[in-house]
Amino acid sequence: MARKTILSGMRPTGRMHVGHLAGVLSNWVKLQYEYECLYEIADWHALTDDPYRSKEIDENVLGMVKDWLAVGIDPSKATIFRQSYVPEHAELHLMFSMLVSVPRLLRNPTFKEKLAELRKKKGYTRLAFKMGELDVEKELEGALNFLRSENPAKALRMLQSLISRTKSEVLDRITTETVLDETAIPPEISYGFLGYPVLQAADILLYKGEVVPIGEDQLPHLELTREIARDFNRHYAPIFPVPEPLLTETPRILGTDGRKMSKSYDNAIFLSDPPEVIEKKVKSSITDPMKVRLKDPGRPEICPIFQMHRVFNREEAPVIEEACRAGELGCVACKKRLAEVLKEKLAPIRDRAASYSDDEVSEVIREGSRRAKERAIRTMEEVRGAVFGS
Ligand code: SF4
């Protein structure tokens, strides 16, 4: 039986970090043995929210693909290709853009999130909200206690952690509660950014992708692709499969400052970090700000260190969780153990990544793009035939 086709991709943001490994790359490695996988270097997508960063893209592509290969993605099993090397993506995107209304795109969750972020930055939105799960009063009281006991460094760390968690709470609220007002769209939102989910639909359907690995929170993104496929099939010809989501487990890995792990926040542990850097980053990571002394009971559920134990140190994680809650484990020892685990896990990946030359990686991308283009040409012949009869 023919294997189903999977399309998945990533923007070329450069070297991969442990969040990518846990959330995407480990799944990609498994999927390549079960499906016909196409893994896209989404370089046009990288320009949709910052069109002037094109100069850094080449270097980012090489760094990213070295890490893909190093974690075990095998170019003889999965097709690794670069989106802009296959211009048929742009042609299908143009065709699909006629099928999608502007109000539909304005309802896209990522667009609303970005809009909320920009509006907030520019003071477009004033919000009244409750702080949800966050016990602000209790945390402020904790910080005050440190000030009283003349430990300003710890008080400062508590306040920084509180501020960063408050920020994400605020953003969540804006995203879910703000009513969209088209008149307040800031000029930073480009036509390309608004239409990026249509480009995403073209990426998937150009290869007749039947399955798309996503987390539950990304289901609305796939819905637009499904709508476009149905619409095209109904009005022109039944060319496209309606892709199904493959719900994958995407463990949440927080950065060393408690925010989402991201290169742009400067809070990531990279797969290519040498041992001393891993150790330094783990050591400086925030933990539960309420756990000050070894005997204080901790809250592993809000601790970035514990989240990494849960993913990369599965066997010991239950014991660590219990000991943390019971006040039997201190953060220093807990971090030390995590640093050991990460150093051991990342060493072979780092060595493999360093063994690939730029030329070897470029060749892998060129060959994958050539294979992808063959498929893309076939699909576009069908599309042109269905739309224009030629
Ligand atoms: S003991 Fe470990 S899990 Fe608990 S708060 Fe400290 S670092 Fe986090």
> Describe the biggest sheet?
3 strands, parallel
Total count of domains: 3
- CATH fold-level assignment of the largest domain: Rossmann fold
Approximately how much helix is present in the residues?
55-70%
What's the rounded overall pLDDT mean? Answer: 88
Structural class based on helices, strands and sheet pairing: mainly alpha
Q: Unreliable runs, pLDDT <50, ≥5 residues?
A: 125-133, 174-180
Strand order of the largest sheet: 1-2-3
Q: How much of the polypeptide forms β-strand, as a percent range?
A: 5-15%
Report how far the terminal alpha carbons are from each other: 32 Å
Shape: globular
CA radius of gyration: 23 Å
The CATH homologous superfamily name of the largest domain equals HUPs
Which CATH class of the largest domain is shown?
Alpha Beta
Bound molecules: iron/sulfur cluster
Number of helices: 16
Topology, pairings included?
Blueprint: E1 5-10, H1 18-31, E2 36-41, H2 43-47, H3 57-71, E3 79-82, H4 88-97, H5 102-106, H6 109-121, H7 136-148, H8 152-177, H9 191-194, H10 196-206, E4 211-214, H11 219-235, E5 244-247, H12 275-284, H13 304-312, H14 317-325, H15 331-355, H16 358-388
Parallel strand pairs: 1-2, 2-3, 4-5
Helix pairs in contact: 3-15, 4-10, 4-16, 6-8, 7-8, 10-11, 12-15, 13-14, 13-15
Bound molecules: iron/sulfur cluster.
